[in-house]
From TrEMBL:
Region entry Disordered, spans: 1-27
This protein's name: DUF4190 domain-containing protein
KW Membrane (keyword) present: yes
Compositionally biased region (Gly residues): 18-27
Keywords in alphabetical order: Membrane, Transmembrane, Transmembrane helix
TM spans (from-to): 37-57, 84-107
Originating organism: Nocardioides kongjuensis
Length: 115
């Protein structure tokens, strides 16, 4: 070791320990129906429109519970995404039903002539 190098005292000490024993996660946990609402909303969009109604209704209820006690739940975004997917699925289902009604009404008024 030369005189120009700083002395080497070994490795630095490890950082202080984490917060063990302080209770649950900061800000509470996930809402118990959050994942279910998201899955129902996605299924409503992809394959089964009426399931979107359930996601919409359950999402509204869960959002009210989260807003009533904001420190208890951390997954408001997941619940809101499932609720919005449920809204879109329900609206698309209603538009599809209206389109079928119009299609059948127009098809019923058209007369086919055979000569």
């Amino acid at each position: 070791m030369s005189y120009n190098e700083p002395p080497n005292y070994g490795t630095p000490p490890p950082p202080p320990g984490g917060g063990y024993g302080y209770g649950g996660p900061v800000g509470g946990g996930d809402h118990p129906q959050g994942t279910t609402i998201l899955i129902l909303g996605i299924l409503g969009l992809v394959c089964c429109g009426p399931v979107g109604i359930a996601a919409w209704v359950m999402g509204n209820k869960a959002i009210k519970e989260i807003d009533a006690n904001p420190g208890a739940y951390t997954n408001r975004g997941t619940v809101n995404a499932g609720r919005i997917c449920g809204m879109i699925a329900t609206i698309l289902m209603i538009v599809g039903i209206i389109a079928y009604i119009i299609l059948f009404a127009v098809a019923g008024t058209v007369s086919f002539s055979t000569s």
